[in-house]
Specification:
alpha+beta; Beta-Lactamase; Heat Shock Protein 90; five-stranded antiparallel sheet; five-stranded mixed sheet; 9 helices; about 45% helix; elongated; ATP-binding; histidine kinase; HATPase_C_sf
Length: about 350
């Protein structure tokens, strides 16, 4: 205890230095400071024998401790004294000294620490907003560019037909129909991105109902087969040997499957092989497995793919798999990712409806 600190021993340093990060004081039942160190006096601008400021959080906590005869530990309070703001961690212990009520108080000044974390949080928010803006711009502007181009081509085709008699009305009508369909598809893509963004940003409800697995697959698989033909990728679907019911929202389950299948089509495109979908019906759960023949997911990436805004694609905002996780959790299920250099395997697990 006799070690010197800038010419003072430790006790004197604690009592006399206003630059340390904690204040100590003893307060009587009338909320007057009996004794206190220099930091205490610096924060509250008082001396021994003077009252704790009426509007201070310290006075309220100390009075509560005396009234209820209990200690208060680790409470974070914010004090504003003479236009100066402090964030303090407060400890208040009620003790009787010579038959007099006393509160022994310790306050740790965490103002600098709070400012550091506020600055760090602000920087992270700015970074997140920047990532969101960049990702959203690509996801919205690219489809809009296609829409704009399609409309320009429609205009050109109509003008060419008016200026020349070499094109038949039927050919022009078919060309216009193609471009309008393409434009509508891109507008739908924009709407889907916006709706997905909104779903992640606020709570949404599912229309849960029992659905037979075979009924769901019969309505969903044909659209996948058309998409596979469009991509030129072999698609094999293995239906379960027995049927069962799932408590799901069919629309949102299709959205989830579409997201995984889109990734599988992108990964398999241009590669030898194809995509296989297998459905297994168990006693308590059913699973849908999607296996592609793409390059797979690197081990160091596997832990990151569920994080919002993580993506390896230039035209994606990285919300797809996070969206899938949120939806499946609302259905009482989950998904698992695995794979190697030969491809990626997605396993979606959903609870079965008990058979009466």
């Amino acid at each position: 205890m006799q070690k010197d600190v800038d010419g003072m021993n430790v006790i004197d340093f604690i009592a006399q230095s206003p630059d340390i990060d904690f204040a100590i004081a003893s307060i009587d039942g009338q909320m007057n400071m009996v004794c206190g160190n220099a930091k205490m006096k610096s924060i509250y601008g008082i001396e021994e024998g003077e009252g704790i400021p009426e509007t201070s959080q310290l006075r309220k906590v100390a009075a509560l401790a005396v009234k209820q005869e209990q200690d208060v530990t680790g409470v974070v309070v914010e004090e504003t004294i003479d236009d100066r703001m402090f964030q303090l961690m407060l400890y208040c212990y009620k003790r009787d000294v010579d038959s007099e009520e006393r509160c022994h108080v310790a306050l740790f000044d965490i103002t600098g620490l709070c400012q550091f974390y506020e600055m760090k949080l602000a920087n992270e928010k700015r970074k997140l907003i920047g990532e969101m803006a960049a990702g959203t711009a690509n996801s919205i502007l690219n489809p809009l560019a296609v829409v704009r181009g399609s409309l320009q081509l429609i205009e050109t085709a109509l003008k060419a037909n008016l200026a020349s008699n070499h094109l038949s009305d039927q050919l022009v009508a078919k060309s216009v129909e193609h471009y309008i369909t393409l434009a509508n598809h891109q507008v739908t893509e924009i709407n889907n991105y916006v709706q997905r963004w909104l779903r992640l940003g606020k709570p949404f409800q599912l229309d849960m109902r029992p659905v037979w697995i075979s009924e769901f697959l019969e309505g969903y698989i044909p659209s996948l087969q058309r998409e596979a033909i469009k991509h030129g990728i072999p698609l094999v679907c293995e239906f379960p040997s027995e049927d069962g019911q799932l408590l799901i929202d069919p629309h949102y389950l299709r959205e989830v499957l579409n997201e995984f299948m889109k990734n599988s089509f992108d990964a398999t495109n241009g590669k030898n092989g194809g995509i296989r979908i297998a459905v297994h019906v168990g006693d308590k759960t059913s699973s849908i497995m999607i296996r592609d023949s793409g390059p797979g997911i690197a081990a160091d990436m596997m832990k990151l793919v569920k994080d919002p805004f993580f993506t390896t694609k230039e035209d994606s905002i990285g919300l797809g798999l996070n969206f899938c996780e949120v939806v499946l959790q609302k259905m009482g299920g989950h998904y698992e990712l695995s794979g190697d250099a030969s491809g990626t395997v997605v396993r979606i697990v959903l609870p079965k409806v008990p058979v009466d």
